[in-house]
Amino acid sequence: MDCKQSNEGNQSPIQRFYAGQSILITGGTGFVGKVLLEKLLRSCPNISTIYLLMRPKRNKSIESQLNEMFESPLYDRIREKMPELRKKIVPLRADLNIDGLEMSENDKTLLIYNATIIFHVAASVQFNLKLEAATMINVNGTRFILYLAKRMQKLQLHLVLLNRSQDGMTMIWGQRE
């Protein structure tokens, strides 16, 4: 899925699908999210915008966190060959640890009227977390993203994949109709 040419005739079906899309990514600063972000930027450079939900850290703005993250070797090819793609990333302050994500109304409105695709890859994988904290991140955060998705005016794809890891038997797949 590498995109060396942005000529529409040479694009793959995936590149054509993502062209012009505005994507919301949760968990974009985690391992899976960073790889997803790099792959989308490098392989589908005609994406319109990538909204990246980011939890604020003490004494660091989300913009400085994003700039620091983008200095990672993972993004070397993008920085060297397509540095203009960095401008497509819009960091938005949010915290899945807090009910309602502690997101501004302006940012919620921005997503409601512009986001067309959601990648919800945020989760806590710390196995020593208290149940309340793990539930807040992995259940309540997901619930709020689903609530936000229901309000999104341009959402084209909403895919939910859940599975119960204890018995490996429960799997729910959902797609917006």
UniProtKB/TrEMBL annotation:
<feature type="domain" description="Thioester reductase (TE)">
    <location>
        <begin position="25"/>
        <end position="160"/>
    </location>
</feature>
<dbReference type="GO" id="GO:0035336">
    <property type="term" value="P:long-chain fatty-acyl-CoA metabolic process"/>
</dbReference>
<dbReference type="InterPro" id="IPR026055">
    <property type="entry name" value="FAR"/>
</dbReference>
<keyword id="KW-0560">Oxidoreductase</keyword>
<dbReference type="Pfam" id="PF07993">
    <property type="entry name" value="NAD_binding_4"/>
</dbReference>
<comment type="function">
    <text>Catalyzes the reduction of fatty acyl-CoA to fatty alcohols.</text>
</comment>
<protein>
    <recommendedName>
        <fullName>Fatty acyl-CoA reductase</fullName>
        <ecNumber>1.2.1.84</ecNumber>
    </recommendedName>
</protein>
<dbReference type="GO" id="GO:0080019">
    <property type="term" value="F:alcohol-forming very long-chain fatty acyl-CoA reductase activity"/>
</dbReference>
<dbReference type="InterPro" id="IPR013120">
    <property type="entry name" value="FAR_NAD-bd"/>
</dbReference>
<dbReference type="InterPro" id="IPR036291">
    <property type="entry name" value="NAD(P)-bd_dom_sf"/>
</dbReference>
<keyword id="KW-0444">Lipid biosynthesis</keyword>
<keyword id="KW-0521">NADP</keyword>
<dbReference type="GO" id="GO:0102965">
    <property type="term" value="F:alcohol-forming long-chain fatty acyl-CoA reductase activity"/>
</dbReference>
<comment type="similarity">
    <text>Belongs to the fatty acyl-CoA reductase family.</text>
</comment>
<keyword id="KW-0443">Lipid metabolism</keyword>
<dbReference type="GO" id="GO:0005777">
    <property type="term" value="C:peroxisome"/>
</dbReference>
